[in-house]
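Example record for the data management plan.
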Amino acid sequence: MKENRVHQRCIAAGLKYISKNEDFDHVIIMDADGEDRPEELTSLFNKSKENPSKTVTLNRKKRSEGPWFKFLYEIYCILINLFAMKKIRFGNYSLLNSRHINKIYDNSISYQINQLKKKNDVFLIAHSYQTPDIVYGVADSVSDSYSLSKAARDAPQQTILFSSVRFMAETAKIVSPHKTVLHPSPEAGCTLSDSITAEDVRELKSRYPGVPVACYINTSAEVKAEVDVCVTSSNYLRICEKLPGDRLIFVPDQLMGKHLAEYLAGRKEVINYDGECYVHATFTGEKIRSWRERTAEQGIELQVLSHPECDADVIAESDIVGSSEVLREEALRLGSEGKSDIMLITECGTADRVRAESENDLNLIGTCVMCRYMKMTQLEDILQALRDPRPEQIIELNEEIIQRAQRSLDEMFRLAE
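Corresponding structural encoding:
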């Protein structure tokens, strides 16, 4: 609040867009809440003519609202100043010329990152759950775990920066051991990945000798080294049904495992583990049913799109189930078909992408859940890692672990394609 970050980021996003896409001489920064009076803008232009090389700022002289709103607004301003513990000026207009805006953009963090990427030949990968400034400002490839693991493998660049959580950066190193892999936020872990160790897998294998083990990609390199095949949310059903025998061990996601067991019922027994993603475990089928009832009363035909890391009762209530990339594509397709009332049961980053990329008006219903680990990485972290990476930001794995983990990932690529 003290730094007014939300307002500043909105303005910055707009300025960046017009600097890249529009031909202009001046830009006026103003609110869109009905308070600003267009007739006052003349004074801005007049003052700009007197000071052509400067950014011009003027206070709002009049307000358009009635006395009751003005009274409440004054209280709001007082409270904001109290909570922020500093004097904040309200009701300003600003006029900037194109030269100033281009200078701002050229000195921005995004610009510096993109320049360093070119200079050092770095391929920057970001998961869909990363923040929009990373996804749209600096990333070279944005997708789900499966697509990004292939992108890391196939990229011609010898340095990869993975804006994500730790296990994804490790996966990039496994499929590209000869490349340098940077991970800007070493503290960005994953509750699902942290729920299982290589020793846990070895104990399961000793308890069920000869039973194939499939692990979800949300696992450490050490776990991947102990299993027969790795899977992702886009291919786990297809791969697991191809495994030999009438039993399989699935780790670590118990919710995805429940869905897999139902899918393979009568064909294979699934021996499940007890890990879960805290984001997707939040959603319940009861909540979806409640939303369907309420929206139906308003004549809304709700389309529910869910990630397979959710519980089985959520999956049962869903119209479409798929990886984050599948959910994004399906939401955009539904919007293009006029089915605009959509509930996305997954992390908030997918909803951010759908809003940004849809050419149609969408009514996203319900609430998403934000992953605190996925949101740890900021542009500042990426810039620092590109300039002077710390030892803990460079992914280093034991050579034997890499070779053994490669086998499970190679098997995934073979069975999925």
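Summary line stored alongside the record: The chain has a mean pLDDT of 88.
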